[in-house]
Amino acid sequence: GIPATASARGTGIPFGAAIQNEYFDDLGYRQLFTGECDLVMPMNELKFALVQPERGQFDFSRADRLLAFADANGQSARGTTFVWWSTNPPWLEAIEDPLDLERALVEHIERVADHCKGRLTSWDVVNEVVAHDPQEHRGPLRDTFWLRRLGPRHIPVAFQAAARADPTARLVLNDYDLEFRGPRFDQRRAIVLSIVRQLQKADIRIDAVGIQGHLYAHQEIDVEALARFGADLKALGVGLLATELDVIDFQVRGGPAEIDAAASRVVGDFLDGLMGGQRPETVITWGLTDRYNWVEDVMPRSDGAPCRPLPFDADLRPKDWYGMLRRRL
Ligand code: XIL
């Protein structure tokens, strides 16, 4: 159980990673989190359907196990998420009456935030609410169950409930595709800024924006635009986090060496942009080892080789870019 990177913990900007209950019994996996992370984050265990599978029936067992682990290791933790298009239980999506639905949302936030109170430094209050491609889309917001049933006000409703339920956790709007070059990405950044301004105008607390950072190795990071985005948020008094960093390599030709070189490049550019506008509150990778990663499931490589999205390979050996990342935090 020797950490792969000696004394990696505890300096500068906190480094964290998303951890999964289902792999917790893999000792090497677990020890990697102990050795490397200032912060851990339950990857799925606080999502809606897992926490409240039936109305009024809450199950915190998986999340509590991970939060107890963090606590025992002296690590901080953060939570995701109250509002997402993806993990709604069937009972929730069956609610037709907007008032009843709003009540269900607020009750969920109150119960979950209260249960975790004092143990999480921040919450993703809403996740992926920006339209995937605003140019092709009718409005700035993603077409989701929440938007259809409650309208745009589900966003302020969620932030307001979260602020009331947990006055100390930082409240975060979390989204993806905020770092690349091109009009679609410019628009997505602008939409995030406008949501922040609208919440502030309504006197509703939003503390930070989470950039997921699922980096396509073949896509160009707009370093200047990302830095400007961070500076614009700073001017609004709003912080910045990288919440789900990993490298999606299905377009990279070659073997592990080529893939890892591409990863170093894209992560380096990302950090240039991320650090260029304001100091991020934390940088979190979406897992730690390639042994368990979501990219393999959703964006596998066409050559059939295992993808290499995370800081440590499947044998728990650190990539060069991990050393680079840690030196920069
Ligand atoms: C993913 C998890 O990694 C998977 O284990 C799960 O099956 C689905 O969700 N953007 C997000 C994350 O906001 O919550 C997603 O996590 C990955 C994409």
Automatic annotation (TrEMBL):
<keyword id="KW-0858">Xylan degradation</keyword>
<keyword id="KW-0119">Carbohydrate metabolism</keyword>
<keyword id="KW-0378">Hydrolase</keyword>
<dbReference type="GO" id="GO:0031176">
    <property type="term" value="F:endo-1,4-beta-xylanase activity"/>
</dbReference>
<dbReference type="InterPro" id="IPR017853">
    <property type="entry name" value="GH"/>
</dbReference>
<dbReference type="GO" id="GO:0045493">
    <property type="term" value="P:xylan catabolic process"/>
</dbReference>
<comment type="similarity">
    <text>Belongs to the glycosyl hydrolase 10 (cellulase F) family.</text>
</comment>
<protein>
    <recommendedName>
        <fullName>Beta-xylanase</fullName>
        <ecNumber>3.2.1.8</ecNumber>
    </recommendedName>
</protein>
<dbReference type="Pfam" id="PF00331">
    <property type="entry name" value="Glyco_hydro_10"/>
</dbReference>
<keyword id="KW-0326">Glycosidase</keyword>
<keyword id="KW-0624">Polysaccharide degradation</keyword>
<dbReference type="InterPro" id="IPR001000">
    <property type="entry name" value="GH10_dom"/>
</dbReference>
<feature type="domain" description="GH10">
    <location>
        <begin position="1"/>
        <end position="328"/>
    </location>
</feature>
<keyword id="KW-0732">Signal</keyword>
<dbReference type="InterPro" id="IPR044846">
    <property type="entry name" value="GH10"/>
</dbReference>
<dbReference type="InterPro" id="IPR006311">
    <property type="entry name" value="TAT_signal"/>
</dbReference>
